[in-house]
Design a protein that fits this description.
Length: 287
């Protein structure tokens, strides 16, 4: 699969109108994509094993999206082949009182993956330039010493985020960022399903429907974010999200490609360690 249509090229101004949420590439339906996804999921498990053994890199995967775009189910499917010991998922909700008493990166920092692991952020510090931009009253509650006027606050945050990510990458944390691009119509369909199907009722919140009123503002905030924070060291991908089976396939494919490019290797064993292994074999065989 060619993932270049999803990559946000650094420095290019993003218009979400150029990204089709219904895109499914050469695939026509879920059944066709099934085998390919299974292969991707299995490969991901294999890469993760070497990532863990090598203990040099960590992979941080960030998911951002409107409600019901399929973040949860993408995470569930894509990570299904990975050893649970080698991965972790953090979901970021509205900040607590304690979290509000810190800078906005603090809680994210505490949740970063250690070397050898895959860490997933289900929402992230990007909410600070998305929901906070759409609802400026949240910013007013953040007890900041000084808020730059107008759009300057967002420019400042983009810069802070880019610098933070550069720091992480320099220290071995590889970053991939996915915006699951669901259409407003498909979101409506999924909300109606949550209302109509009893086993999905728990996922429905009235507030989510109210938030749809701000759809255009969110799209603007996303366009700005993608434009200013897709960098050579931490790129954004806009993933079509109206067909969940395609979303999973595309995400799995991009993660695999990135891990492959790291050229991961199991640690080589020193001559002394090899000697020890032989000695151990001797001991075992002569027990
Ligand atoms: P679900 O699929 O279960 O609805 P969710 O990620 O939408 O998952 P919720 O508990 O419904 O989880 O929503 C989390 C809410 O927290 C979102 O509305 C999000 O915008 C908000 N949020 C996350 N981070 C921040 C932040 N830094 N500041 C303010 N609000 C935030
Ligand atoms: Mg929600």
């Amino acid at each position: 699969m060619d993932d270049s249509p999803f990559l946000v090229r650094p420095g290019v101004k993003v218009s979400l109108k150029d990204f089709n949420p219904r895109y499914t590439g050469d695939f026509h339906d879920k059944a066709e994509a099934h085998n390919k996804l299974q292969i991707g999921v299995q490969k991901l498990g294999e890469y993760q094993d070497v990532l863990y053994a090598q203990n040099t890199y960590a992979l941080l995967i960030i998911f951002q999206a409107m409600d019901a775009a399929g973040k949860d189910s993408t995470i569930k499917h894509v990570m299904s082949g990975v050893n649970p010991q080698g991965c972790q998922v953090f979901s970021f909700k509205a900040p607590s009182v304690e979290e509000l008493d810190h800078d906005y990166l603090w809680r994210n920092m505490k949740a970063l993956p250690e070397r050898g692991r895959i860490g997933i952020f289900n929402r992230s510090y990007y909410e600070e330039v998305l929901v906070v931009r759409v609802h400026p009253e949240i910013l007013a509650r953040q007890q900041l010493p000084k808020i730059p006027k107008g759009d300057r606050i967002w420019q400042q945050r983009f810069e802070e985020i880019n610098n933070f990510e550069k720091y992480l990458v320099n220290n071995g944390i590889v970053i991939l960022k996915f915006f699951l691009n669901v259409s407003k119509e498909e979101q409506k369909k999924r909300f109606l399903e949550r209302i109509d199907r009893p086993e999905k009722n728990w996922k429905f919140e009235l507030g989510d429907v109210r938030e749809r009123r701000h759809w255009d503002n969110y799209m603007h905030a996303y366009e700005e974010t993608l434009t200013h924070t897709s960098t050579p060291w931490a790129p954004w991908y806009v993933i079509p999200a109206d067909r969940k089976w395609f979303t999973r396939l595309a995400v799995a494919h991009i993660i695999c490609d990135r891990l492959k490019a790291l050229n991961l290797r199991y640690p080589t064993v020193s001559a002394a360690h090899k000697q020890e292994l032989l000695k151990a074999r001797d001991l075992l065989e002569n027990e």
